[in-house]
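Exercise 7.
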Amino acid sequence: MSCVEVCPVDCIYEYQGDDRATFPNQLFIDPEECINCGVCEPECPWEAIFEDEQVPEVFQADIDLNAKITEHKSQFAVPEVTEKPKPTPEQIEENKKKWDFPG
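Solution. The predicted structure, written as tokens, is:
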């Protein structure tokens, strides 16, 4: 959650509802609130944040998924930042393989 901690406009949200089929366990960036400052990108230990123009093909559907936050805003909240162990380089590589993303 280090990205949440550095966001100057608090536009990174966690889904609080029950529809996990639509909104998986991840953080979401509200595109209407984001100022594209980029400070969250290097903070993401999973290397999962990209500017719109640089989103890899495998993650293109996430652009629309993030946009859905505006339609369901009442079911999202800026999460409390809690210390979580950072992923190891091996875990990051395994996650990239899961998505068939070479990084």
